[in-house]
């Protein structure tokens, strides 16, 4: 094979490897943040369903945890990180960054709303969890996440 | 090289045309079904079970792939689906008489839904899932048509499909249908409960779940013995998961989990559905609790099949 081809192949393999490792940090971090959200959702849903006793303080805290994620989260999307093998981020995020940021804001709003509902009792909390909160999760996953597993 | 290709094309065309005339024109409308008063409530159920709006509702903006729609009852079409075969544009199925289906007879509607044939006698592409809709009862299709006729009529012409060259000839679909359309209506299993049979009907018929949740062969037909074990996202990115109760599928989901997921979009892992399943779930949420329970029972009863897609799930 022509020597120049070999150089080109090695160079592109290297650049992919370098690019991949460059974004590995943000990709891992943002996945961790979503897992944090998941843990809070788990607690919230268990209370909303009545599987665990409703605790207004814990419910509000869970919502605050979720509320604190989006601002950190949106900073973890460097250009090209959609190419990382482990990410489920859709290229649509970068094609429509404003839309993506709007969805992040929606999560802040929905978690704040649900936090307020927690102080109104289990019924109100349940309605908010299964209503605006889950709807917001779906809204972002619909447009900006690619399911890989 | 060109001569060989051209002979091949002519041969293929001849076979397709021969099949076109050999294949029977299809089932005729039962007299009793044709004269009964339509049940619009049932039509609405079929509308949501069938997911018509998911493809045929007009996108909210000029971007044909914008997940946001104008309104789920504004069926002006125009949504695009980018597949390995090219880009398909969903047509207008509002009751407008010229650009929609308002001028169609009941028989024409049923023929389109169950045989994939247009009133002009042309084949529809199986992106329109008539391979599942073929299972639907006449009564349900008539109720659905009656319901569709109550929706707003919109004057709008969707673009024609933009397909790769070999797929532009609709006649070749006759051959495809000969292979992948069996023309059989839904037959209840006498050994199963009414609930399971209802679930089976909703899933295999209007729900057309298998169209996305199954792997396909190179000709684009569902691989029958791997049905429901997951498939590639028709838009080309990511996967549609295995919904059989194999450990690589939803073995760890209970029937109640499936019902919750259909009702709210929440999964047992406290994640939510995403992608196209969000709209499916919103449609499922419009069905009766009884119908969701039936769907969940049937899905849970599916034979466990190892996943056809994705990475192996963590134990």
How many structural domains does the protein architecture of chain A include?
1
How much of the sequence lies in strands of chain A comes to under 5%
Give me the Rg of chain A, rounded: 20 Å
How many domains, in number, for the residues of chain B? Answer: 2
Please state the overall shape of chain B, judged from the principal axes of the Cα atoms.
globular
**Low confidence ranges of chain A:** none
CATH topology of chain A: Four Helix Bundle (Hemerythrin (Met), subunit A)
Mean pLDDT of chain A: 90
SSE order of chain B in H/E notation?
A: HHHHEEHHHEHHEEHHH
Largest interface comes to: A-B, 21 and 23 residues
Uncertain ranges of chain B: 21-26
| Computed Rg of chain B | 20 Å
List the helices and strands and how they pair.
The complex is a heterodimer of chains A (149) and B (315).
Chain A: H1 3-49, H2 56-67, H3 69-73, H4 92-95, H5 97-118, H6 122-144
Helix pairs in contact in A: 1-2, 1-6, 2-5, 5-6
Chain B: H1 2-22, H2 31-35, H3 40-50, H4 52-56, E1 80-83, E2 86-89, H5 106-115, H6 130-133, H7 138-148, E3 162-163, H8 172-180, H9 194-204, E4 231-232, E5 239-240, H10 255-264, H11 276-284, H12 289-300
Antiparallel strand pairs in B: 1-2, 2-3, 4-5
Helix pairs in contact in B: 1-8, 3-7, 5-7, 9-12, 10-11, 10-12
Description of the molecule:
The complex is a heterodimer of chains A (149) and B (315). By secondary structure, chain A is mainly alpha-helical. Chain A has one domain: Four Helix Bundle (Hemerythrin (Met), subunit A), CATH 1.20.120.10. Chain A has 6 helices and no strands. Chain A has helices at residues 3-49, 56-67, 69-73, 92-95, 97-118, 122-144. Chain A is elongated, with a radius of gyration of 20 Å. By secondary structure, chain B is mostly helical. Chain B has 2 domains: 27-180, no CATH class; 194-300, no CATH class. Helix content of chain B is 37%, strand content 4%. Chain B has helices at 2-22, 31-35, 40-50, 52-56, 106-115, 130-133, 138-148, 172-180, 194-204, 255-264, 276-284, 289-300; strands at residues 80-83, 86-89, 162-163, 231-232, 239-240. The chains are: A mainly alpha (149), B mainly alpha (315). Chain A binds chain B through residues 38-39, 41-42, 45, 88, 90, 130, 134-135, 137-139, 141-143, 145-149, and chain B through 67, 233, 237-241, 264-266, 269-275, 278-279, 281, 310-311, 313.
């Amino acid at each position: 094979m022509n020597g120049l081809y070999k150089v080109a192949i090695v160079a592109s393999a290297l650049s992919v490897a370098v690019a991949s490792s460059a974004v590995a940090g943000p990709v891992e971090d943002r996945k961790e943040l979503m897992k944090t959200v998941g843990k809070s959702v788990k607690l919230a849903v268990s209370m909303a369903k009545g599987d665990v006793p409703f605790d207004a303080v814990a419910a509000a805290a869970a919502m605050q945890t979720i509320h604190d994620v989006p601002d950190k989260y949106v900073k973890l999307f460097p250009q090209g990180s959609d190419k990382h093998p482990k990410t489920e981020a859709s290229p649509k995020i970068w094609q429509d960054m404003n839309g993506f940021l709007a969805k992040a804001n929606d999560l802040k709003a929905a978690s704040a709303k649900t936090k307020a509902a927690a102080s109104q009792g289990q019924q109100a909390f349940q309605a908010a969890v299964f209503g605006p909160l889950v709807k917001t999760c779906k809204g972002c996953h619909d447009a900006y996440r690619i399911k890989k597993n | 090289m060109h001569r060989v290709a051209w002979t091949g094309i002519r041969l293929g065309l001849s076979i397709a045309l021969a099949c076109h005339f050999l294949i029977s024109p299809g089932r005729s409308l039962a007299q009793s079904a044709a004269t009964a008063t339509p049940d619009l409530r049932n039509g609405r159920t079929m509308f949501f079970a069938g997911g018509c709006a998911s493809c045929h509702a007009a996108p909210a903006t000029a971007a044909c792939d914008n997940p946001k729609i104008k309104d789920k009852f504004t069926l002006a079409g125009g949504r695009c689906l980018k597949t390995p075969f090219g880009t398909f544009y969903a047509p207008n199925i509002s009751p407008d008489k010229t650009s929609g289906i308002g001028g169609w007879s009941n028989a024409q509607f049923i023929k389109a839904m169950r045989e994939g044939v247009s009133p002009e006698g042309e084949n529809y592409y199986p992106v329109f899932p008539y391979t599942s809709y073929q299972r639907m009862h006449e009564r349900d299709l008539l109720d659905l048509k009656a319901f569709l006729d109550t929706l707003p009529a919109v004057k709008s012409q969707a673009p024609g499909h933009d397909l790769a060259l070999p797929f532009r000839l609709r006649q070749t679909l006759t051959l495809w249908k000969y292979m992948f359309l069996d023309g059989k209506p839904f037959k209840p299993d006498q050994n199963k409960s009414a609930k399971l049979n209802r679930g089976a009907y909703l899933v295999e018929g209007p729900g057309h779940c298998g169209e996305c949740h199954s792997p396909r062969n190179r000709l684009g037909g569902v691989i029958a013995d791997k049905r429901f074990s997951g498939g590639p996202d028709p838009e080309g990115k990511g996967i549609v998961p295995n919904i059989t109760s194999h450990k690589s599928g939803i073995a760890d989901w209970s029937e109640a989990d499936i019902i919750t997921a259909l009702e709210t979009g929440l999964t047992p892992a406290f994640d939510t559905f995403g992608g196209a399943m969000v709209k499916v779930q919103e449609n499922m949420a419009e069905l009766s609790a009884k119908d969701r329970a039936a769907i969940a029972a049937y899905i849970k009863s599916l034979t466990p099949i190892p996943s056809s897609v994705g990475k192996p799930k963590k134990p």
